[in-house]
Specification:
35% of the residues are buried. The chain has helices at residues 3-16, 38-57, 73-79, 81-84, 101-108, 158-162, 165-171, 217-234, 286-295, 321-332, 368-381, 394-404, 414-419, 440-447, and strands at residues 20-22, 34-36, 62-64, 86-91, 98-100, 131-134, 137-140, 150-153, 178-187, 202-212, 243-247, 257-264, 274-282, 301-302, 309-310, 313-320, 333-338, 341-346, 357-361, 386-388, 408-412, 421-426, 432-436. Helix 2 packs across helix 10 (321-332) and helix 3 (73-79) crosses helix 9 (286-295). It folds into 3 domains: 3-75 and 136-329, BirA Bifunctional Protein, domain 2, CATH 3.30.930.10; 86-134; 355-447, 3-Layer(aba) Sandwich (Rossmann fold), CATH 3.40.50.800. It contains 14 helices and 23 strands. It is globular. The chain is α+β, with helices and mostly antiparallel strands. The protein starts with a helix and ends with a helix. It has a 7-stranded mixed beta sheet, with helices on both faces. It has a 5-stranded mixed beta sheet with strand order 20-19-21-22-23, sandwiched between helices. Strands 5-4-6 form a 3-stranded antiparallel beta sheet.
C-alpha cells in the first residue's frame, strides 16, 4: 500500500466503522471540522486517559487543572497572541481563494510565490501581496458587540496554566520543580487546514507545563524530551521506526530550546510525510514574566529552604490529542492477504482499543444467542467494552471486528453448552484457543492492561 493512499483509506474506514464523521455532513459538511463517532470517541478518550494517568496519577510532582476557554483579553496581549499570532496570507486574484504562504509553497513544490499554482483554479503567479492574518477566533461577552466586550477563543491551553501558577502551587503545596497538566479544546482560524484530523480549526491539546529553577532547565528539557518519546512508543504503542525527534532550526523569541516529536504519516503531511504530534519547548521565564508585567501581580516563587525569589523557567510538553489519535489509527492500519481475500486490520494496542471484545453466537439457535448475550452483558458490567454480533457468517463477523480494531473475539458454540468453554480468537494472529467461560473476564483483563 502506497503511503499517499493511507489517509484516503483511513477516512473511508473511519466513517464506515464509526471513528470519525464529517461535521454537519447532512448540510454538506463544514471544512476541516470533524465529529468523533462511537468508536472514535472511545479511542480518543483512551489516549487522553493514558496521558492523564502517566502525567498526573502516577506522579507526585504534577497537578491537574481545567482552565476556562474564555479568558480576560489582556491574557492574550501579555502572551503576544494579539500582536504576533499571525500568518502571512495571500489571495488568488483569479478565484479569490486564500492560502498561508508556507503551506501553499509546500503543497505546490514552488520555491517562490510567483511560481506557485493556485490549488483551486490552477492559475500560476496571480497572487496578491502577503498580508498578516490573526489566527484567533474573536467573539463578544454580553449582549452588545462592542470593542470593550471582545474576548477570544483560546488558541492554546498553556496560558490558563500560567495565570494559575501561584493558585496551584500554593493550594497543592508544591515546591519547584513541579508541573501543571491540562487537557482541553483550543481554536485556531487556520487558513488552509486539511489532511483529515491532522490540521483543524478546533482541536484538543494535552499540555503539561513544568516549572523549574533557572539553571536546571537544560537538564529538565532533556529529561522530558526522552520521557515523551518513550511514552509515545511504550504506552501508545507507536512503531519506533515511525517516530523521530526533530529539533527546531529557528527558535521562537521566548524559547531557548525546542523540538517536535514527529510521526511518519506519509503523503502530504508535514515534512515529506513526517508530522508533529507533540512539541517540547524550553520557554525560559518569558510567560510568567509577561503575565507579571501585564497583570501587576508578583508571580515569583519563593524557595522555602533558601528564601530565594525567582521566576521559574518552564519546560512545556504539548501533545495534540487529535493528532496522537490519528497516529494510532495510521500506525495500526494494515492490509493482509488471507485465503485469497484482503483482510483489513486495525492493530491498535489492546489498552487503547475502543472495544476489547466481540461476542458471537455461532448460530442463532440451541440457546447460543442467550448464552452469548449473558456473556456480553457480564463483560459490560465488569467495565470491559464489548460488542454483540449475531448477523452473518462467523468469518464475516470476525472481519468486521478486525477492521474496528477489537483485539479479541469470543465465540459461543455447542461445546459452550456442553462443557462450559468458549473459543477466544486473537485479532492479530487469528489463533484460537478454548478457555472456561468463567475465565473470560480474567483472560481479557490480563491482556488489555
Amino acid at each position: 500500500m502506497a503511503e499517499h493512499d493511507l489517509m484516503e483509506k483511513l477516512v473511508s474506514l473511519a466513517k464506515r466503522r464509526g471513528y470519525v464523521f464529517q461535521s454537519s455532513e447532512i448540510y454538506g459538511g463544514t471544512g476541516s471540522v470533524w465529529d468523533y463517532g462511537p468508536l472514535g470517541v472511545e479511542l480518543k478518550r483512551n489516549v487522553k486517559e493514558a496521558w492523564w494517568r502517566t502525567m498526573v496519577h502516577e506522579r507526585d510532582d504534577i497537578e491537574g487543572l481545567d482552565a476556562a476557554i474564555l479568558m480576560h483579553p489582556r491574557v492574550w496581549e501579555a502572551s503576544g497572541h494579539v500582536a504576533n499570532f499571525t500568518d502571512p496570507l495571500v489571495e488568488c486574484k483569479n478565484c479569490h481563494r486564500r492560502y498561508r504562504v508556507d503551506i501553499l509553497l509546500a503543497e505546490t513544490g514552488a520555491a517562490e510565490l510567483d511560481a506557485a499554482r493556485c490549488l483551486a483554479c490552477g492559475k500560476t503567479g496571480t497572487w496578491t501581496e502577503p498580508r498578516q492574518f490573526n489566527l484567533m477566533f474573536k467573539t463578544f461577552i454580553g449582549p452588545v458587540e462592542e470593542e470593550s466586550s471582545v474576548v477570544y477563543l483560546r488558541p492554546e491551553t498553556a496560558q490558563g496554566i500560567y495565570v494559575n501558577f501561584l493558585n496551584v502551587q500554593t493550594t497543592a503545596r508544591q515546591r519547584v520543580p513541579f508541573g501543571i497538566a491540562q487537557i482541553g479544546k483550543a481554536f485556531r482560524n487556520e487558513i488552509t487546514p486539511g489532511n483529515f484530523t491532522f490540521r483543524t480549526r478546533e482541536f484538543e491539546q494535552m499540555e503539561m507545563q513544568f516549572f523549574v529553577e533557572p539553571g536546571s532547565d537544560a537538564e529538565w528539557f532533556e529529561r522530558w524530551r526522552e520521557s515523551r518519546l518513550n511514552w509515545m512508543r511504550d504506552v501508545v504503542g507507536l512503531a519506533s521506526n515511525r517516530l523521530r525527534y526533530h529539533p527546531h532550526e529557528k527558535l521562537a523569541h521566548y524559547a531557548s530550546a525546542a523540538g517536535d516529536i514527529e510521526f511518519f504519516f506519509g503523503g502530504t503531511i508535514g515534512d515529506e510525510g513526517w508530522g508533529e504530534i507533540e512539541g517540547i519547548h524550553n520557554r525560559t521565564d518569558f510567560d510568567l514574566g509577561r503575565h507579571q508585567e501585564y497583570s501587576g501581580k508578583r508571580l515569583e516563587y519563593i524557595d522555602p529552604g533558601t528564601q530565594k525569589r525567582y521566576l521559574p523557567y518552564i519546560i512545556e510538553t504539548s501533545a495534540g490529542a487529535d493528532r496522537v489519535t490519528l497516529a494510532v489509527l495510521a500506525d495500526a492500519y494494515r492490509e493482509e492477504e488471507v485465503e485469497g481475500e484482503t483482510r483489513v486490520v486495525l492493530g491498535i494496542k489492546p489498552s487503547l482499543a475502543p472495544l476489547k471484545v466481540g461476542v458471537f453466537p455461532l448460530v442463532k439457535k440451541d440457546g447460543m444467542p442467550e448464552r452469548a448475550t449473558a456473556i456480553h452483558e457480564e463483560l459490560r458490567r465488569q467495565g470491559i467494552p464489548s460488542f454483540y454480533d449475531e448477523a452473518g457468517a462467523i468469518g464475516r463477523r470476525y472481519r468486521r471486528q478486525d477492521e474496528a480494531g477489537t483485539p479479541f473475539g469470543i465465540t459461543i458454540d455447542g461445546e459452550t453448552t456442553e462443557k462450559g468453554t468458549v473459543t477466544v480468537r486473537d485479532r492479530d494472529t487469528m489463533q484460537q484457543e478454548r478457555i472456561a467461560e468463567d475465565r473470560i473476564v480474567e483472560y481479557v483483563r490480563e491482556r488489555v492492561k
